[in-house]
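User: I'm new to structure prediction. If I give you an amino acid sequence, what do you actually give back? Let's try with this one:
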Amino acid sequence: MTSFMELKDQLVIISTLLALISDQISVLSNQVSISPELLVGKWRKLLETKLYQEKLLGIVVDEAHCVVKWGLTFREAFARVGEVRTMSLNHAVMALTATSTSDLRNEVQAKLALRHHILLAHKRICNKFARAYRLVKNTAHYRRWFGAYTSSRAAIVKRILSACYWGVRRNTVTYSINPSRCRSNWNAFTYKGSKTVFLCPSFHSKGIYCVRSGAPTKEGILMHEWSHAFGRTNDYTYGARDNQNLARTNPGRAVYNADSYEYFICTTRRRGSEGKAVVLSVCVSKPNLFSSLCCFLFEFLRVL
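Assistant: Good question. You get back a string of structure tokens that encode the predicted 3D arrangement of the chain. For your 304 residues, that looks like this:
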């Protein structure tokens, strides 16, 4: 049998039927059929490797309705299949089911991160961290969110922004969709040192791109959470008024406050073309036959 590592391209098929028969992996004609349990278990480390990312052709989720119907009760691994998709944001994903209503389809799209809004927000944050790093200067904008300027505190801000930039850029990061640990007033959460951000139901109703008012958006929320994970920031205050008050009264804490970074980055004045939102294609940047077919089907179904 040809091993996974010897093949140039791989199509990963998440199969419920195979899982019901046996938890074995079959490799045929550049196709890997695998159960959800193995995919989020033993194979998880493999999925994070650079070699996997290079050889992955696309992901197919068969009987996709099981992600919703079984994920919270019968087989919890189904609820985590969306994590695999967010680890492969530049690859095409196709969900197949013959049992679908409009509401169920929306739930499946959310669980599998098929809505491209997460991808659009994620693709912007790396450049945003880099741009914010260059704006750490003794300006009114800096003082508004981090307080009185000193070289030592500015160095802390730069260190945290740099950690976020390289953390997102160098690591395979994961977005877990609607985990059970979410609370009703949470948009998202993560842990210091984690490579996963957990996106709660309210996250999906937010706009994609940062707005000058500083209102919560997907882009801002992701930057907030990655500042926790890679920059090891804390939550001292939330919202424009409290963040600015923290900057005035306790700048030593402000430079470690996650929400201050979200506001510092999202409310930065833009000039020229930098102020225009860039709408990216839902199709992947390096298309292949499978991804092109997925994109064609997406555009076709969208106009029906």
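You can read the tokens as a compact description of the fold. Here is one thing that stands out. The beta strands are 10-14, 26-27, 31-34, 56-61, 93-95, 174-177, 188-189, 196-199.
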